[in-house]
Write a structure and sequence with these properties.
Oligomer: single chain
Number of helices: 5
Helix content: 55-70%
Strand order of the largest sheet: 4-5-1-6
Number of strands: 6
Number of domains: 1
Largest sheet: 4 strands, antiparallel
Length: 232
């Protein structure tokens, strides 16, 4: 193997490592330790970027029209607050306060419980785990280049696994996120007034299907190479 191939392999491994580090620093770290995630850092762990309030995209539910009409005409604050002995609470339900931004229909969960934090952070951590798993599999494939073992059954299986992680895992994370958002809204002062908005992207399925197709082409190449080696 010539020097240029070695340099290319090292560069690819370095890029994969940099991508994994970015996921850990800007994804896993804030989600686990930051105030917009599980907040295990309790404000002591430095965050790589400002942490926004935890939010859920919502749609009007059965009680939205009545609540909107009852809101103050100058502010249209659908979920008014009041100060109590337990701190600021929702004026109608007495639950921790929430805030609805209109017309974007984004619900801010201002005082999330531990269960709310777990519900909102869980799908994000699952998505980050999928990305790290794909990067690890790519690294395993790249590391076979110096040994000239790229066209091997092990790499074919790795490519299939990448396709399944993207297609099935990416779709499952979206559904898990929707279920978690619904549960958070149902436990909040916004229950019955708004509900979590459902959105589903077919991009993971499309990308996963393309990767699986490439895996089949790769597998045929492995078989062809094995046949040729058997004839020599």
């Amino acid at each position: 193997m010539n020097a240029s191939v070695k340099v290319s392999v090292r560069l690819l491994i370095g890029l994969i490592g940099a991508a994994a580090a970015a996921v850990l620093v800007f994804g896993v770290w804030p989600t686990v330790l930051g105030p917009s995630g599980l907040e295990l850092g309790r404000g002591l762990a430095p965050m790589p970027a400002p942490q926004p309030v935890q939010t859920v995209a919502v749609l009007p539910d059965d009680g939205f029209a009545a609540r909107w009409q009852a809101a103050a005409p100058d502010t249209h604050q659908v979920f008014p607050w009041q100060d109590t002995s337990d701190g600021t609470r929702d004026a109608i339900t007495g639950l921790p306060p929430v805030e609805l931004a209109t017309p974007s229909m984004v619900l801010s969960i201002l005082e999330p419980s531990w269960l709310d934090r777990l519900s909102l952070a869980g799908p994000e951590l699952a998505a980050q785990a999928l990305i790290l798993a794909v990067l690890w599999l790519l690294r395993r494939i790249v590391r076979t280049v110096p040994a000239a073992e790229v066209f091997a059954d092990a790499n074919a299986r790795r490519i299939v696994l990448i396709g399944l992680l993207v297609a099935v895992g990416g779709s499952a994370v979206q559904l898990l996120g929707y279920a978690a958002d619904r549960a958070v809204v149902a436990r909040s002062a916004a229950a019955g007034v708004v509900d979590a908005a459902f959105s589903f992207s077919f991009v993971p399925l499309a990308i996963g299907a393309i990767v699986l197709l490439l895996a089949e082409v790769f597998r045929q190449g492995v078989r062809l190479r094995a046949d040729v080696d058997g004839l020599v």
